[in-house]
Prior knowledge:
By secondary structure, the protein is α/β, with parallel strands linked by helices.
Amino acid sequence: MVAKPLRLVLISTPLGFVGSGRGGGVELTLISIVKGLLEIGHEVVLVAPEGSALPPDCQKAEIITVNGKEQAGWQHQNFYAPMTIPLDGILPKLLEKALEIAESSDAILNLCYDWLPLWITPYVKPKIFHLISMGAVSKLMQSTINHLAKSHHSRLGFHTNRQASDFHLTGEPIVLGNGFDLKKYNFRLVKDGPLGWAGRIAPEKGLEDAVKVAASLGDTLLVWGIVDDEKYAAKIDASVPSGTIQWRGFLNTHNFQEELGTCRAFINTPKWNEAYGNVVMEAMACGVPVVAYDRGGPGELVKQGVTGWLVPPDDINQLKEAVSKVADIERTNCRDWAIDSASYEAFGKRIHFWITNGIKA
Ligand code: UDP
């Protein structure tokens, strides 16, 4: 417990509601932050789109929902796309509500990867902190973050160094990693299960490469995740013999980890500078070795030859070769690494230090 608890206002992603899966890894990250901050003794108010819910172990947090039209995700727009806000858009409403509550709070922690909260930061009294959830997927977002970093470096947090390297920061990046409730992930000692892949089914996640590896090994690939792009999913499905992919759908964390833990290897194939890669750490939490492209966050999360194998990005032959070497990896190494580096308790403390130091800056 901290000596001086803070009252913190968290802003959720403007994509979907918490629990929908539309917000990708941000949803789970948000829950870990809420839980971590509550356990330290802070007071948390979450401002989120209508329909959002927190799990029972976060019930001490207050949740305020607002209604409005969903924002378009930057990752699926042209790199040079301008900022657009739909009529009756949710983004200004989230911000408006958070600023109103912040009058009686110590700080705002924003999880929207969006222009408006970043831009407004220097002009408002409440101290707004931003946990940036993606790399530079838009020129406007990149230059907005670069610009804010010049005057408010201490307000910007990142998940990994690789992610932060997409931005021109004025000092060392504040790298916070991520955190998971590891007691909710069961460790499994299996050596001969199927291959697994998880993530939003969208081009930046590179599912097609994992599918090619499974097909060439005559293996089954279990695939979990929300379909962000129907056409892309159908094209991949048609590209391999039937039965290669087992579409498992989008499961809640309990069911997801139950199935994930049965895999002998987890394949991760990002085509973008992945900010962290929650699914990589979740696989390791279940004891599943990860074979990943050495790109973005997964390149920092997988320890070569210890918790899995990293291969040069987009090299499908090396990916296939690495999959055939997963039996060399001790599954206990994976679980141990998740416990050492990615518990929600430690993540909550890192967020706490970042914000308490940043408030003083
Ligand atoms: N996920 C889930 N159920 C599933 C598949 C995935 O809850 O069946 C979650 C997973 O726990 C992770 C998120 O989807 O938190 C994907 O996050 P990641 O950081 O891997 O990628 P992002 O979508 O943020 O780019």
